[in-house]
Amino acid sequence: xxxxxxxxxxxxxxxxxxxxxxxxxxxxxxxxxxxxxxxxxxxxxxxxxxxxxxxxxxxxxxxxxxxxxxxxxxxxxxxxxxxxxxxxxxxxxxxxxxxxxxxxxxxxxxxxxxxxxxxxxxxxxxxxxxxxxxxxxxxxxxxxxxxxxxxxxxxxxxxxxxxxxxxxxxxxxxxxxxxxxxxxxxxxxxxxxxxxxxxxxxxxxxxxxxxxxxxxxxxxxxxxxxxxxxxxxxxxxxxxxxxxxxxxxxxxxxxxxxxxxxxxxxxxxxxxxxxxxxxxxxxxxxxxxxxxxxxxxxxxxxxxxxxxxxxxxxxxxxxxxxxxxxxxxxxxxxxx
Length: 336
What we know:
Low-confidence stretches: none
Radius of gyration: 21 Å
Number of domains: 2
Strand content: 15-25%
Distance between the termini: 13 Å
Number of strands: 12
Shape: globular
CATH architecture of the largest domain: 3-Layer(aba) Sandwich
Largest sheet: 6 strands, parallel
Number of helices: 13
């Protein structure tokens, strides 16, 4: 059977290194689609699509709403708008994964809002990894013929094969940038004299020197901040030895989180804000969600009441049902 041709955006080696989603996506759908730009990196951004446009059946956009921030951003934006508005001329259909409510970054925000609405109203297929994404699409009056789909962010099985002693109460990991709200959480602990209540470990690269300085004033023997990239095997060890993995994301932009799913794949007990994918997984019993910082203390107090054996079994089933290996077939069933 002939495979449809699909172009995956972005396909930049630098981006794929920092975020494995695109690599995993490509491997998952490759048995079912011919990926036109496989094994080819590009710094040309949107312009690279024109090389393949007349031969494509689908274009799959990820984080494309950040195009205005790229090199030659407004020229790329113009090219993107052309592709979206004239897709029927080229007989190509657009798949867009709505990863976030909006870009995490406020630069070029007017252009990003315009693009976000354009994608909602003109994409043929809109995928979201949080049920809240469906609500957002409907609020923007998505076209009746557009196909909407909520599928949990796929994951791999990284569950521990043995039990570990817990030497950390709260682990926060991943790139340390303002939209994640870590400074707000540490400020709350300091103001409410909780700074020495729990053993907290924060590990991740801090690209902003000013933000690093802001966080450093909260560092003490109970709160350890390590400005470094953490290798995957090291991350597993840290998660296995932590009671909780905490996400302090601010509400404005986040819908789903690869870091959340990576943490669950390692059997973590996650604490996160009560929206997006965190809310979905709270309803399934995999995330302990909060609306206010004050609720985190009660979640930690109840830690000893958790049935770990039952929880681990439930996570194992969830991972099996939402594994990257089955993601490609789910997409095929949806769009064809």
